[in-house]
Write a structure and sequence with these properties.
It is a single chain. With about 475 residues, this protein is of the alpha/beta class. About 45% of the residues lie in helices and about 15% in strands. It contains 15 helices and 15 strands. The strands form 5 sheets. A 4-stranded parallel sheet has the order 4-3-9-10, sandwiched between helices. A 4-stranded antiparallel sheet has the order 5-6-7-8. Strands 12-11-13 form a 3-stranded mixed sheet, covered by helices on one side. A hairpin with a 4-residue loop joins strand 1 and strand 2. Helix 4 crosses helix 6. The longest helix has 27 residues. The relative contact order is 0.11. It binds adenosine monophosphate and zinc ion. Adenosine monophosphate binds next to helix 1 and strand 9.
Length: about 475
């Protein structure tokens, strides 16, 4: 069983890479800020969700149980506006994007969380109302113009997460036109006064709707308890969202809110953050419709350390496809060789070098979840496995390397993925290229050129070009 105590992660709170120490020896309570459901999530969002999934899988690899909650923000300015424009009830409008989120998350092999609370679920609205009541009782929240605000100067530890100087915070504080009653520009809204055309909930302090930050505090405290272990999101959430979550939670409970904060860097396009407002986004579905494999998207998103920015390109996706097909092909051939030799890959004895590779794999992930270093071990195992496969009597050793790769893949999850076309809609899935290339080769060897050409033309029609050379056939995607 892997050693839990060796895992070190950077904690945004304090800014250091430090031992990850949950409150319990066996269980990690983890909260992840989910989508604002007014549009289909883009692969920038999914970079963060895949990083969180790798973290979750690695915690399980280490032997923890994980109790994870991921919210859906289904009431805010954007969802309200979107539903009004679509002429639909808010709940119906947002449910559509939640379903699409699950389609994409399933296609990418993201493990399901234990809880998916929605901000408009009655039980969480009630939890939010209770939280605001406590803050009013503690005198740190105040009413102005029918809304309830949090008085930032009343919470001296404000800024502990983002380290933002008060002047920066002021510059960053957006004063919405409907918030001009607040005492101080950096105060943030907990409860927005009822407005015409907006959903409204009754509360002892007046009718209205929750502010955005409030939901994650209420849901986190409700589902995971005070002082839970891990809170995750993209770096754009550090300030103000997570800073405000800490302030309102700790001012209400008097206890530390979260032990460990984990933030993922952005996915960029041409050097700019992928975002819906810039219009530079790609969705998982769009990329699948172009014929990219979900495994390639997952692999690309996971291949760079979560604290480094990652510039998205389709060339990067194509490289990921090649990497995946090499590993998948080895695993398939190793199973075949093992079956022929009567060995089973399940009971394969791991060669000592494979055990060492697994140790290095774990060391890399223990070191602040260094996925790029850990992935290098997969490719070392691949090289050694292929070498074993080509040597006589090497089937058992190859099976050992295959077993090591499969163990690593319990964290990466991008190899041996099903094509995922059911969840991505009813389009045709990506072709099994290696199998088709082999079949074409066999057709050529038996001089069945009609069949060989049929395969080549079929792939060309799907934008995949085959190139023959003395060392074999390779494929590439046609540049558009
Ligand atoms: P939102 O729906 O905007 O609240 O975002 C959902 C999650 O995706 C949050 O954790 C964001 O920080 C994250 N996110 C948004 N854009 C990107 C991006 N370009 N790269 C990485 N994460 C992102
Ligand atoms: Zn949140």
């Amino acid at each position: 069983m892997p050693d839990k105590s060796t895992l070190r992660l950077r904690n945004t709170l304090g800014g250091r890479v430090e031992p990850f120490q949950p409150g319990s020896a066996d269980e990690v309570r983890m909260y992840t800020c989910g989508l604002t459901v007014y549009a289909r999530g883009h692969i920038g969002n999914f970079r963060t969700f895949v990083a969180q999934d790798i973290l979750r899988r690695y915690l399980r690899f280490k032997g923890y149980r994980v109790l994870q909650a991921m919210n859906f923000t289904d009431v805010d300015d954007k969802t309200i506006r979107g539903a009004a424009e679509a002429g639909e009830p808010l709940r119906d409008y947002t449910t559509r994007y939640i379903e699409e989120f699950f389609d994409d998350a399933d296609a990418l092999g993201i493990e399901r969380a234990e809880h998916y609370p929605r901000a408009t679920d009655q039980e969480y609205v009630e939890a939010m109302i209770r939280l605001v009541e406590r803050l009013l009782e503690n005198g740190i929240a105040y009413e102005a113009g029918g809304s309830i605000y949090f008085r930032v100067t009343g919470f001296p530890r404000y800024g502990q997460l983002s380290g933002a100087a008060a002047s920066d915070r002021l510059a960053g504080a957006r004063v919405d036109s409907d918030e001009y009653d607040k005492e101080d520009a950096q105060d943030f809204v907990l409860w927005k006064a009822a407005k015409d055309g907006e959903p409204v909930w009754e509360a002892p302090f007046g009718p209205g709707r929750p502010g955005w930050h409030l939901e994650c505090s209420a849901m986190g405290l409700e589902l995971l308890g005070s002082g839970f272990d891990l809170h995750c999101g993209g770096v754009d959430l550090v300030f103000p969202h997570h800073e405000n979550e800490i302030a309102q939670s700790e001012a209400a409970t008097g206890e530390p809110f979260v032990r460990h904060w984990f933030h993922c860097e952005h996915l960029l396009v041409d050097g700019r953050k992928m975002s819906k407002s810039l219009g530079n986004q790609f969705t998982v579905r769009e990329l699948l419709e172009e014929g990219f494999a979900p495994a390639a998207i997952r692999h690309l998103l996971a291949s760079v350390h979560y604290r480094q920015q990652l510039n998205f390109t389709k060339a990067g996706l194509r490289q990921a496809e090649v990497a995946i097909s090499r590993v998948d092909e080895f695993l398939r051939r190793s199973d075949e060789a093992a079956a022929r030799s009567g060995a089973s890959s399940d009971d394969a004895e791991l060669p000592a070098e494979a055990v060492a590779a697994l140790v290095r794999f774990e060391e890399a992930l223990d070191d602040d979840l260094n996925t790029s270093k850990a992935l290098a071990e997969v490719f070392i195992a691949l090289k050694e496995g292929n070498r074993a496969l080509h040597s006589p009597e090497g089937a058992v050793e190859a099976a050992g390397w295959a077993a090591a790769i499969r163990r690593m893949n319990s964290v990466f999850g991008s190899f041996e993925m099903s094509p995922g076309q059911e969840s991505a809609g009813d389009m045709e899935g990506p072709p099994d290229l290696e199998a088709l290339i082999r079949e074409r080769q066999e057709a050529r060897e038996r001089r069945d050129f009609a069949r060989a050409d049929e395969i080549r033309d079929g792939l060309a029609a799907r934008g995949i070009l085959l190139e023959d050379s003395s060392s074999g056939t390779i494929w590439r995607r046609r540049e558009d």
